[in-house]
Specification:
- The complex is a heterotrimer of chains A (about 675), B (about 230) and C (about 325).
- Chain A is an all-alpha fold and about 675 residues long.
- Chain A has 20 helices and 2 strands.
- A two-stranded antiparallel ribbon of chain A has the order 1-2.
- Chain A is globular and about 75 Å long.
- Chain B has 2 domains: about 45 residues, no CATH class; about 180 residues, Four Helix Bundle (Hemerythrin (Met), subunit A), CATH 1.20.120.80.
- Chain B is built from 6 helices and 1 strand, in the order βαααααα.
- Chain C has 2 domains: about 80 residues, Helix Hairpins (Orthogonal Bundle); about 170 residues, Immunoglobulin-like, CATH 2.60.40.
- The longest helix of chain C is centred in the first third of the chain and has 34 residues.
- The chains are: A mainly alpha (about 675), B mainly alpha (about 230), C alpha+beta (about 325).
- Chains in contact: A-B, A-C.
- The interface between A and B is large, with 92 and 74 residues.
- Strand 2 of chain A pairs antiparallel with strand 1 of chain B, so a sheet runs across the interface.
Chain lengths: ~675, ~230, ~325
């Protein structure tokens, strides 16, 4: 009846996951109870859970990303502190638990921390920057989000029901085959990633279509803001790379569930095939994360330097070059498989070539600041810190692309330091830069700068502190994923890295405090004009938060930096543009399809993990029924009358006019 | 998003509407004049274009997935583990009949699309029914081949070659199965809802899907059956 | 060799025990004599070449990135909004000359480093034999669940978790795995290489100084992975012959004892075998000997199957 699921699946003998899960469960229950008592459940259901508004979905993506970043970070804290106590000693985590933690850390950070965060930013910002009302497929967007959340849920359920993979974040066979991993850990990984992967793919299709087919009149390709370009490149990569992951994990699933022989190294199977296919997705994945991050930095640096982005067209070319080149480098993940000098040489060089467009971007960001008036707000601090620290990660990346150097550094702590150096500098810094930058657009008030800067400085110092020793200990020959070690010369560096984690914890706490403080002070921090940073692209042309239809009338774009031109004209003429003729706006109706579908997907995933076949069949039938019900709806849109549109827009125009006149008075005085 | 203006439910005078069926562009997608290219002139493309375009992108990604399976097949083709190889296993008559059935079903699907354009419900339903029968026939033959192989101790667990074979062909078969489910759903939708624009768009996507499965089948036929036994 | 000693129950003890160990280890780590593993302190020409490439490439890149980092900070600081001396050029957004420089600087760097990569990938290809007057020593390496088996086919001895090679003699490693992937690596001797079941990989190294080194696996292979650290000694010819002689007294390594060895366990104390069944390595590679059995399926109820590496840590 319940497949493999029994009471013994719950690790009663392991206090750490149980206590952690109990705490999280209590917090969740507390939040739900609080929300229920306050009577907000109907509001949440109506306005958020079933929302198909790209802004709401974007916010929920970012929220999921934030929570999962903290979850992944707590894994990192466990790993670093455990290793500091594991010199000639067993530490406090037994190997079977430690191995789950580093696997979960990587999986969560990549798939459920960084990905949702970046996709959330793209979801929120891209339609606003393009000057349109929503993404191409609003309900599909909701389905994508909830499927991602479903994957995240499964990974976290593995904490208390069963176990997570003990194979690392890429479950390389034959270790991940049933012979060597008979438990449900790898199955949790497979189903969680497959389900969220479908969501990611759909989100990629959605955003590619949005960017290519739905732009405000006059917004030609070379008038799109840089963030839209990088979002386009990133989503093209999602569309081209995620199916490879889906296929690869499907093959591993068939191996494990039905005894196929894709990667078994017996009966003709070949585990090297997995490595090739996995990294065919895996390396583009790095750029799926990094490209939108580059977009965020482009927007932030340009805005806070008070200048257009330097060499915009060059940046576009560099973005597209990275997009293409990312598919030509996967083999550098296994130079040490012994493929021979020619193959290693070619892939070494292609890997380095990616550094050229990336280097160009760095220099162009530098020259964006040149001749500017740089305002050191929190997003700008993150961006400058990115420029300074990312080049180190880039340089060590080029170093690792030299095959003989990789022969001694592969899988070492040096490698660990390298990829954290690039991913944290680019993706995490961009995530927080973008979060602080667009927060007022989403919620109508800015985040507290004092706590933001505290969070920035502690995170930066902690991050440098953690990863510098790891570079060194990698040069001392230390490899990754060691549950304990007995080499004396590694020990001080491991301890040093662990001390840095404490500083990072302070940074994370500051980040949380910033949010709380900002919410409490929201009336002082209110953004009335919708343009708190003196922005340059169209998202700042509408109110904060934008109305559900984004723009009262679709803006006409007449050049690069669409909003900057509008604003300059307003400043020169000391008045806003003529009031437009308002028309009724039709918007898509909300739909619970997303969450219902994800509910059934979770059922299918959980059932398959535990071999509860009837439940899986039920889940599939439920998902199909959901789609049929959705397809049968007769009402798909509602209309917002012209008067309502006008009323909302006039409010915003009034505060903008007020701000404009204030600025004039200040200038005159 | 504390501004109540952002909340659809709280807007006064908001009226849920039924879309005018002949209005292909629509306001949520912008003023949507139907010639808009989406390339910056004239604003967002009309919904019909957007939907078809998006579905094409999805199909491309699906083809990438098949490409990964094909790559696996190409690598593992030699991995027969002393078991039966392509030459002993493949029944080309069966494969030829399958191909004919699938191509004919694509033709029938094309007829259905034409009937849809002409708004002729009866022809549409008939053509879709023929498409279904041909597709189901294809599936039945494929299943028979699978059952036969398993009975001859050449199931997917026998060798890596057979694992890859069953997966590539089976994945296509799974797509056909989903296509058949979709087909029935569309027949029912046209029957109950008539030629509404959203339903026209769905049928168009279904047609794209069905034709794409043909393209994939041509690749399966070439890479798996022909090249498989040539090696 | 499978000690079966339970892991010490202590969980928080290490916190208090750590301080003196940290002090001792710091002292050892800071004095070069204590360095057993540093990649930059090579004991063979392969490792020396690789360390050299590391250093040269690092210097080239530092020459690019340090000025970049400094310029970034200088630009950001000089053009701060409050600095009224800085010229504000709000419309300056392109310069062909600068673009030429910013595309060519990384490009030229990559051309140069690409040359190093291409030449290095060929010269230091692990499969290329090292040149020497002496005839090479052949060592067959099998990664087991969670230990290393070294077979010396010409000497007809084998050892577990102890690698002894003569100084200045080229060593031809041929490697495979009994179960999952591992990666064989002796940091100060040079390149690492994957071991994979049903396949062999090749690695050619040479030690040019006597040394007591450590080797390890660098590809995660399961719960006992950290136990795959093993001593690797480069010794004079005489000492090598002595070691072979001493090893000869050990028990024989045949299919049965290999089967025992292939089970999941750790070997913190090296073991030697006095004779080796002919063709053992070939049969491991073509899988006519059963693969490493893994943890078994009795734990297959979804609960974390208590597959713990047996033996102390």
């Amino acid at each position: 009846m319940l497949g493999k699921l029994t009471w013994s699946a719950i690790p009663f003998d392991q206090p750490i996951p149980l206590v952690a899960a109990a705490l999280v469960g209590l917090v969740l229950l507390g939040v739900i109870a609080w929300v229920a008592v306050a009577g907000w459940l109907p509001y949440l259901w109506r306005e958020w859970i079933t929302s198909v508004d790209h802004k709401r979905i974007g916010v929920m993506y970012v929220l999921l990303g934030l929570v999962m970043l903290i979850r992944g970070f707590s894994d990192a804290v466990l790993m670093r502190s455990h290793q500091a106590l594991a010199y000639n000693a067993p530490g406090y985590l037994p190997p079977e638990h430690y191995d789950q933690i580093f696997s979960a850390h990587g999986t969560i950070m990549i798939f459920f921390g960084a990905m949702p965060f970046m996709i959330g930013l793209m979801n929120f910002v891209v339609p606003l920057q393009l000057g349109v009302r929503d993404v191409a497929f609003p309900t599909l967007n909701s389905v994508s989000f909830w499927l991602t959340a479903s994957g995240a849920l499964l990974v976290n359920v593995s904490l208390v029901v069963g176990e997570f993979a003990r194979t690392g974040w890429w479950p390389s066979p034959p270790l991940s085959e049933t012979t060597y991993s008979p438990g449900v850990g790898v199955d949790y990984y497979l189903w969680a990633i497959q389900i969220s992967g479908v969501g990611t793919l759909m989100s990629g299709v959605n955003l590619v279509t949005t960017i290519l087919k739905m732009r405000a009149p006059g917004m030609s390709y070379l008038r799109m803001p840089m963030f839209c370009w990088t979002a386009l490149a990133s989503n093209l990569l999602i569309v081209a790379a995620f199916p490879i992951l889906t296929a690869t994990l499907a093959m591993l699933t068939l191996d494990r569930y039905l005894g196929f022989h894709f990667f078994t190294d017996e009966a003709g199977g070949n585990s090297m095939l997995f490595m090739n296919l996995f990294w065919c997705w895996g390396h583009p994945e790095v750029y799926i994360l990094a490209l939108p991050a580059y977009g965020v930095f482009s927007e932030v640096i340009s805005t806070f330097s008070g200048k257009p982005l330097f060499a915009y067209r060059s940046m576009v070319w560099a973005t597209l070059a990275i997009c293409l080149l990312s598919f030509t480098v996967w083999l550098h993940h296994f130079f040490t498989m012994g493929p021979g000098g020619d193959v290693n040489g070619v892939f070494g060089i292609t890997s380095m070539v990616i550094a050229v467009p990336t280097g160009v971007k760095i220099f162009d960001w530098m020259f964006t600041m040149y001749g500017g008036r740089v305002r050191f707000t929190t997003p700008m601090l993150w961006s400058v810190a990115f420029l300074v620290t990312f080049v180190v990660g880039g340089a060590t990346g080029v170093l690792l692309a030299i095959p003989p150097a990789d022969f001694v550094l592969h899988n070492s702590m040096f490698l660990v330091a390298h990829f954290h150096n690039v991913i944290v500098s680019a993706v995490i810094f961009a995530a927080f830069a973008g979060y602080t930058y667009w927060f007022p657009k989403a919620f109508g008030f800015t985040l507290d700068e004092v706590w933001g800067k505290r969070a920035f400085w502690f995170s930066l110092v902690g991050y440098v502190w953690v990863f510098t020793p790891l570079y060194v200990v990698g040069l001392l020959g230390m490899t990754r994923r060691l549950q304990h070690f007995s080499v004396a010369e590694w020990y001080p560096w491991v301890v040093a890295a662990s001390l840095g984690v404490i500083v990072m914890i302070v940074g994370v706490v500051c980040q949380v405090v910033q949010l709380v403080v900002s919410i409490r002070r929201r009336d002082q921090l209110r953004d009335v004009t919708g343009d708190p940073w003196d922005g340059r692209s169209l998202e700042w042309a509408t109110a904060s938060p934008p109305p559900s239809f984004n723009f009262a009338v679709m803006p006409h774009v007449e050049g690069e930096e669409a909003y900057w031109a509008i604003k300059q004209r307003a400043r020169e003429q000391a008045r806003l543009r003529e009031e437009p003729d308002y028309e009724p706006v039709e918007m898509p109706l909300n739909s619970p399809t997303g969450i219902v579908c994800a509910f059934f997907a979770t059922l299918v995933g959980f059932a398959m993990i535990w071999y509860i076949l009837w439940l899986a069949a039920l889940g599939l039938a439920g998902a199909f029924a959901t789609f049929v019900v959705f397809a049968w709806r007769d009402r798909v849109e509602y209309e917002i009358p012209a008067e309502a549109v006008a009323r909302i827009n006039r409010l915003n125009r009034a505060s903008r006019l007020e701000a404009l006149q204030q600025a004039r008075r200040k200038e005159a005085a | 998003m504390s501004d109540s203006a952002a909340i659809p439910g709280s807007l006064p005078g908001v009226v849920p509407i039924r879309r005018d069926p002949n209005h292909l562009g629509h306001h949520a997608r912008g003023e949507g004049d139907s010639h808009a290219t989406g390339r910056g002139i004239g604003g967002p493309s009309p919904k019909r274009i957007v939907v078809a375009y998006g579905f094409w992108i999805f199909l491309l990604s699906d083809i990438v997935m098949f490409a990964a399976f094909f790559a696996a097949y190409a690598v593992l083709r030699g991995g027969t583990a002393d078991g039966p190889g392509p030459a002993e296993l493949f029944d080309y008559t069966n494969v030829a009949i399958e191909t004919v059935l699938l191509l004919l079903s694509s033709f029938a699907c094309g007829v259905a699309t034409l009937a849809l354009d002409a708004r002729r419900a009866l022809v549409f339903q008939a053509a879709m029914a023929v498409t279904f029968l041909l597709g189901a026939g294809f599936l039945a033959l494929e299943l028979r081949e699978f059952v036969d192989l398993v009975a001859r101790d050449a199931g997917p667990t026998r060798s890596a070659f057979l694992s890859a074979f069953f997966t590539v062909v089976g994945c296509h078969g799974l797509h056909v199965t989903i296509g058949l489910l979709w087909l029935l759903t569309m027949m029912a939708q046209v029957l109950t809802k008539g030629f509404r624009p959203d339903i026209l768009r769905r049928v168009m996507c279904f047609a794209l899907f069905w034709h794409a499965l043909d393209i994939v089948w041509v690749a399966v036929f070439t890479v798996v059956y022909l090249m498989g036994s040539a090696a | 060799m499978t000690g079966n000693a339970a892991r010490p129950p202590c969980r928080w003890g290490p916190v208090f025990a750590a301080a003196p160990r940290l002090a001792a280890a710091t002292a050892a780590g800071l004095t070069l004599s204590g360095c057993q593993m540093s990649l930059l302190n090579a004991k063979g020409p392969v490792a020396a070449d690789e360390a050299n490439i590391l250093i040269v490439a690092s210097i080239i890149m530092l020459a690019i990135i340090v000025p970049t980092m400094i310029l970034t900070l200088v630009f950001a600081w000089w053009f701060r909004a409050s600095n009224l001396k800085a010229v504000y050029r709000p419309d300056w957004a392109f310069s062909g000359k600068i673009e030429l420089v910013v595309w060519s600087v990384p490009f030229l760097t990559i051309v140069f480093l690409g040359g190093i990569a291409w030449i290095g990938a060929h010269q230091l290809d692990p499969a290329v034999p090292r040149e020497s007057d002496k005839p090479p020593l052949r060592v067959q390496v099998v990664s087991l669940d969670w230990k290393w088996l070294f077979i010396y086919p010409e000497q007809q001895v084998a050892s577990v978790n102890e690698l002894v090679v003569p100084v200045n003699t080229p060593v031809q490693f041929i490697l495979t795995s009994s179960s999952v992937w591992n990666s064989f690596f002796v940091p100060r001797l040079g390149s690492m290489i994957y071991t994979m079941r049903g396949m062999t990989s090749q690695l050619n190294l040479i030690g040019d100084q006597e040394a007591n080194l450590y080797g390890l696996s660098t590809h995660f292979s399961g719960d006992g992975f950290p136990h795959m650290l093993f001593p690797a000694r480069i010794v004079p010819d005489g000492a090598f012959a002595d070691w072979i002689q001493r090893a000869k007294v050990g028990p024989p390594l045949d299919t049965a004892s290999y089967g025992e060895l292939a089970k999941q366990s750790v070997a913190d104390v090296p073991v030697t075998y006095g004779s080796v069944e002919p063709d053992l390595f070939r049969r491991i590679v073509d899988q006519t000997i059963p693969k490493g059995p893994g943890p078994g399926r009795e734990g297959d109820n979804g609960a974390p199957p208590n597959v713990k590496p047996k033996g102390g840590s």
